[in-house]
Amino acid sequence: MSRFPVHTLDSAPEASKPALRDVQARFGMIPNLAGAMATSPVLVQSFIGIFDKVHGGSFTEPQIQTVLLTDAVTNGCAWAVALHSALGLQAGLDSADVEAMRAGRSPENKQLGALSTLARTLIEKRGQLGDQDIERFLAAGFSKELLLEAIVIVAASTITNYTGSVTNPPLEAGLQAHAWHG
Question: How many other C-beta atoms can be found within 10 angstroms of the C-beta atom of residue 123?
């Protein structure tokens, strides 16, 4: 059951409309989660800003989707798990790796596995990484700069995951094949 409205361009608060137009231009539609975010102009505007930083950084799209899917599972956000399963496959992630992440495990690929483990550890330890956590990430070939950049992706996914859990938007028909029930 949806607890919050899923806004359209017509029903959204005036201050949310520019952000929704931006989302629509990027995706060709307004995802239900963005429509739910529009209830708060501050939230939807912030999401657009951090979205740009995530997708304009140094990570590849498969790496970004690895973090976003891992975070969605770790945070228990069914809507985001479905979305990032679909987007991860579109970005070229192996279906076995997507299934592993959906089950709470890390991918077999060394770098993606290290990235997924880092993302999950950041959430589970509330950012309190130990030296061993950092060394495991660096040993997979990532830099300290990328470790800090991964925090931006985790922050972005926290916004979407928490919003999805609070607002409970319906899953779009195109995402039904990727429905997840934690």
Answer: 18
SS3 call for 176: helix
Is the CATH code 1.20.1290.10 the one for domain 61-162+170-178? yes
> Please, are residues 165 and 178 in contact by the beta-carbon 8 Å criterion?
no
What one-letter code names the amino acid at 19? A
- List all residues 6 or more positions away from 158 whose beta carbon is below 8 Å from its beta carbon: 71, 75, 123
Other CB atoms within 10 Å distance of the CB of residue 83: 26
Phi, psi of 122 (to 5 degrees): -55, -45
In the chain, the percentage of residues whose pLDDT exceeds 70 is 99
Q: Report H helices in the chain.
A: 17-27, 32-37, 41-55, 61-75, 78-90, 95-102, 110-124, 131-139, 144-167
Token duo for residue 108: 């077999």
Closest CA to 119 of 150, 158, 85, 163: 150
Residue with tokens 């505007």: 45
pLDDT tens-digit series, residues 38-55: 999 999 999 988 988 888
pLDDT tens-place string over residues 8-39: 999 999 999 999 999 999 888 999 999 999 99
In this structure, how many other beta carbons lie within 10 angstroms of the beta carbon of residue 12? 24
**Terminus-to-terminus CA distance in the chain, angstroms?**
17
